[in-house]
Amino acid sequence: MGFLDLFVVAVVPVLKVLLITLVGLFLALDRIDLLGSTARPYLNNLIFYVFSPALVSSQLAGTITLQSLATLWFMPVNILLTFIIGSALAWILIKITRTPPHLQGLVIGCCSAGNLGNLLLIIVPAVCSESNSPFGDSTVCASYGMAYASLSMAVGAIYIWTYVFIIMRIYADNSAGNIENVSTADSESYTEALLPSSEKSSCHDHSAHGELPETVSDGKVTFMERTFGRFKKFAANTNLKKVFAPATIAAICGFIIGIVSPIRKLMIGDRAPLRVLESSASLLGQASIPCMALIMGSNLLKGLKRSEVSVSVIAGIVAVRNFFLPLIGIGIVKAAHHFGLVGSDSLYQFILLLQYALPPAMAIGVMAQLFKAGQSECSVIMLWCYVLAAFSLTLWSTFFMWLLG
């Protein structure tokens, strides 16, 4: 496959995202006002509570089996490594650029979570369908490639709606805590999100009496005891219904349906008696990706008017996702292959490598809208990342194919 052919393959899915984003921008204009400040929260809630859970559960149920877990076990590990390494690089970027506190969660989310879903679902079949594809027969390549890409999408969604969701919530809460010193009324409504009402009233009681909520013993407390005590206190005070996103619960359901054979036979397959449930969930889930792009475009209008994100932060995120992560990914995948953790399937290795070179996940924009933290800044970051991804994805895809060849 020549460079020009590969460029077209890589640029088409990115252009689709950018075109839908422009539609969202147009719908948010004051003269149109179909995705204005009133409509955005409703669409965002639909994505959060309906479309994303449906997408995650249907993808997991259709791709996860005990056999696939045994043969493709390194893919979830590889995706987790992209999140951890991206978070570490984001922490370094925050320290270097002195990112404002209310944008730190957004920077970590953009650096750690890649678009592991729809881009792979478009790029991989397109690469396989080319007559001079380096991955052999196009039918076999497309079949295995869709399975790998679907698994990548499902596992990535789990990490996004657990790992990144919790991190962005914590940073949003901390940012609200700083505002709390200025406005007490705002702080009470924000604290209510994670604390049950009984705990909240007890906090007020302690503060009213000028007492600390817990006593300190005279003896020395070890580090492990102190850590365990903090974890115990966090578990007691945290409302788990707020921590576990609907997509996380949907992922658990998808795992159960995919792994438990009797349930899978009932719901998955052309002859399954309850296949209408899975196909309906899949139909709902297909609305998730375009709606995320529309939200990103509508928030972009505000970002173009006024944005607090600096050029250095945008450049840092672009450098992390387009340069540092792919280089680190090459070392990790090559080392895994050397030690026998990954087989000799070149298509599988190609997808593992691509997972390090993708632009940020669009779900980050949904979370920014949910937490009211950096919505416009997120759209500006996404715009630059996706524009540059058209070129970086092409270059990295070409290099990865040469490397595997």
TrEMBL record:
From the Swiss-Prot or TrEMBL record, state where the protein is found.
Endoplasmic reticulum membrane
Q: Which InterPro entries match?
A: Mem_transp_PIN-like (IPR004776), PILS1/3/4/5/7 (IPR045033)
Please report the record's description of how this protein sits within the membrane.
Answer: Multi-pass membrane protein
Which keywords annotate this record? Auxin signaling pathway, Endoplasmic reticulum, Membrane, Transmembrane, Transmembrane helix, Transport
Residue stretches spanning the membrane: 6-29, 41-61, 73-94, 106-127, 147-166, 243-263, 283-301, 313-335, 347-371, 383-404
- Give the family, as the similarity comment puts it: Belongs to the auxin efflux carrier (TC 2.A.69.2) family.
| Name of the protein described by the UniProt record | Auxin efflux carrier family protein
Q: Which organism is it from?
A: Salix suchowensis
